[in-house]
Protein 1
Amino acid sequence: MATATMARKTVRINGCVAAAQAAKYADVDVITAYPIRPYTATMMALAQMVANGELDAEYIVADSEHSQLSIAHGASSSGARVFTGSSGVGVQFGYELYSPISGSRMPVQMMIADRTLDPPGDFGSEHTDALSTRDMGWLMGWSCDAQEAFDNHLLAYRIGEDARVLLPQMVCQDGFFVSHITTDVALPDSGQVKEFLPPYKHPYPLDPRHPVSHGPQIMPEQGPPLQLERARAMEGATTVIEEAHDDFARIFGRRYDPWIEEFMTDGAEVVFFMQGGHAVTARHAIRHLRERGAKVGLVRLRTIRPYPTDRVMDSLSRFKAVGVVETNMGLGSVSSGGSLYAEACAALYESDTRPLVLSFMAGMGGEAIVLKEFYWMTNKLLEAQKRGKIEKRTHWVGFEE
Amino acid sequence: MPSTCAGCGPSIQYRMTSKASGDNTILVGPTGCMYVANSSYLCTPYNVPWAHTQIGSAGSFTAGVAAAYEAMIRKGKWKGAFPNIICEAGDGSASDIGLGSISGALYRDHDCLIICYDNEQYANTGIQASSRTPYGGMTTFSPPGPMVPEAKKLFPKELARMMAAGHPHCYVATATVGYPIDLMNKVRKGLNHKGAAFLMIYTPCQKGFVYETPRSIDLGRLVVECGLYPIWEWNPQTREYDYSFRPQHMRPVSEYLKLQGRFGHLHADHIATLQKFANAQWRMMDVEVPEALVRATNPETIADMASAEAAAAVAHTV
């Protein structure tokens, strides 16, 4: 392939700048910004690119996240490729728009650098901000480093804008652990991006030459078919997601399993099940533990919407005990811990070989999950495996012996 | 199929606006009567592109449409003349929940026209008070009772003046359905103005104001003649108000109030309060207030609304 011979360059950037670079490579038309840490750095980078003439886009400093999302909705409805983003309470200030944007089938792209909600309102990463929108019809997944963030942004445009899908995308990364940690990122040749990502073309934009009405009032009996259509778009995205990842691997030379990453799961009896940047620490912990003979591995969820139910079931059913590392709040939820537990258990329900499942509340308030804590959690998993029974569903890591 | 009430002021305004803007137009409809009553799935009344948006997204969604066309035309992704982009926001959207979004769009000067069709209440949800509901106006959120005999105690937000004062680079004007040519001229002016424009248009609501259906246009004139809805233009070049519009007559406010059930509960001193408000509006426009209107601020010269024959008939229907 011609593209394989083209020169690439490697730059040292953080997750925020990687997201901005992806938006530039995608040649976005409209960008809407509103400041909130830590994702702001993405918009700062894009503002400079526009100021330097490296990217030709309308750069709009919105008056709130609600306006950011509404501007993005209006621009996407008119046929423009749109990029926006937010963090923490900002994600929630725009909440009203998530359903209208997916309901009108506008493939707006939103970058999330996670931040705790208020309280505690610190700058650290908790996934609750984006996860609270998980059922609003947006494609959603977490990256664990800057390279993957860059790649996921391009993948998400390709998937969301596909005429078989037409859904908005939330491309998430942990605040600070990914957004502000600088690593090597391979940037592609623009020809590769051109081959991978066709121009955005919505079938029914707001165009005076072909008048259409978007979002008219409906009668209750007209509601179910529209909701079913949106649900089918989400389910149908599965094939498109797999195709896109195959093409991505062919054109850019980096292959990702779109749904889950398994790390050192061969021969593992207990595994961590988690998403996002803490998986990088988990890999280190697992290497150390393996050297000491503990049969532990990692299953990292890469895409949470659409949820890869069968893949999660098939993967997790192979182990004796699963430790869900939450990094999110599900107050009063089924495990009284986080929300990942409930979905993992639901995915396992039809399995003949259900593992024991524990929920670990770790990384809360944006704290790093350190190696020692992964060792502690591994012990809990191994104890449960030995006992053949869990001690309790949810452990708050760092608050117990 | 449009299913607005007979005599609906907002839809009369909508027709005039669309006539003035022509085919190369995109309409944005935040939630409100002109969304709920006009649009219905599978039988839209619009022959130009139209999109619903959230009630708080009037300015922001519209800004997105304008920004998209700026970028797409500049980058050669769309070929054609820049469209007329018009947002039709009710006064609940424009003066309350979407105020910030409209201010943002005007401030950033997107090339669009934002219209507040002002029926002085949330009508679609069943007549609730907005920031534009006049003093003395009865709504389901501002009913009269022994503790609040005047019903709405607050005076309306000076929405259009806020927009002119805060965004002096924009074309801003007021209009009513009582003067169709003036209204359509202002739509054209707003669209021809390169950048953002804002129009606040008085559009009576039969259901909420409670009046005889054929009198919508009359009310559109009376509200101006009684000094309760000053008609003006803000000139962004000279940065001055133009108060040259003059109604044919000047009348006491009671002539406007007595046609509407929503004012049927007012006592003489409430009417006098409204007359003082109207006189102040005239003076703000440098109009000399005739002696008769000064006298009309004395409650002793005024009868309670409930005893006014015309009002009594409609008041009973509320």
Protein 2
Amino acid sequence: MLQLIADGFVIGSVIALGAIGVTLVYSILRFANFAHGELLTWGAYLAWTALLGFAAVWGPMEPLGPFSFGWTLLASLGVAAIATAALALLVDLLLFRQLRRHGSAITLIMASFGAALVLRNLLQFIFGAVPEYYSREIQVAIRLVPRDVLGGLRITPDQLFVLGLTAVSVVGLHLFLTRTTLGKAMRATSINPQLAQVTGIDVDRVVRATWIIGAVLAAVAGVFSGLTVQLRPQLGLDLLLPLFAAAILGGIGSVYGAVAGGLIVGLAESLSVPIVGAEYRAATAFIVLIAILLIRPTGLFGERP
Amino acid sequence: MTALRVEALEAGYEPGLPIVRGASLSVESNEILAVLGPNGAGKSTLIKAIAGLVPVSAGRVLLHDREITGRAAHRLPHEGLGFVPQTENVFVNLSIDDNLDLAASILKVPKKRRLDKLYALFPDLARQRRLLAGRLSGGQRQMLAVARALVGEPKVLMLDEPSAGLSPKLVGIVFEKLVEVRATGVTIVLVEQNVKAALAIADRAAVLVEGSTRIVGTARELAKDPQVAALYLGHYRGDT
């Protein structure tokens, strides 16, 4: 039981970080971006590319303490975050920005489907379809709770790293949104873009910040997924529905809702495995989503219209 | 000194389909100018075009003799032009304090000093500063909208139908407050359907018809002009 909960939190961390981007883009740009999953995949693969680059210069990665990865993966994560943000800004410049001027929300949504296909196929063309790993080091899981207490709990240092960095990212985002002028401007723009403009907020700058934050968190989520599972071109596509389930469950537009939603979806998926099997775990997340929306249609943290 | 001058302005939402067609007006410093006219005359479009929210296709807008034509809406509050939209003019999910605090952060004005001044001007808001703006009554919301637009100490404040949806008593309270705001040295441009209330506080008025300025005069002259009332101001008569 404890093990399933811990696994659920690890899966939920990846989903939560991805769902924040979905919900931010929805609340500020007013459309559901179905290409967001691909930013996770690109983030993961860009980090892998950077890692290969570092390895070519400084030799193979030496593991850092109990972790399966060394400092070069952390540096690669930084490189991937910047490159993924640049990719998101490029897609916005070439596609979404043009459509925002004249298109409707449905046009943007369909365009995001197209962007997702292009990004996924381009990635597969460049990197191939064979799964990859950041590290092939074998990790020994740490026993945190003995087996006779609720089945016990073992967790790998990499999983602890994922949980810790997710917590740091969420707290950092909270401080950014509540303490900085740009963060407050983002909140204001999500409430009322035209009023934000006449208050002196540069909405284009807010839009850029939205893409950058969403893409950076997507890159982090992608690397976490690659670190705890593996790198696959379908990574983002497989996570897309859980990302949207989490964003809707938490109340679309709410950052804190996306985090809570991500963790709930992760837990629901994990806890359902012994009951329905791994094949149907995604369906369990949707049953939870439907149940919560029936009780609270705006989601956990959503504002009532 | 002229605070705001609009010269032969053309503006509209679609290219080639101007709603404002050659409107001109000028507002002297510390004056209240009412912009009046029948429904669909282009009053709101004119004020939004000045505020940078509607594309301008021809003409000029000068703020204290500095051209601001077509400038992005978000830059104008930094340059001394405040705007209060007709609807959705406060951030409903934020408290009164947060609405004003946000504007102060964005416009980089000393928060405490400015907010203390505004709360002195709007004591009703000061008493419930932690209340969500969405929970305010229509009149209080309008007061907050005006206070928010005043955070950056604008030279010119433009309001789009501040009386819309308010009871006559509340209209009176809001308009009295505008007179107090003018007394602090702010020039006011007021787009209004409520002709009687607007002319009661305005120094001068401009009548807009089919997107262009037809008549400009003192509020007193316009209030007594039966032709103006009959032609452009609907049911209103100066003597009622």
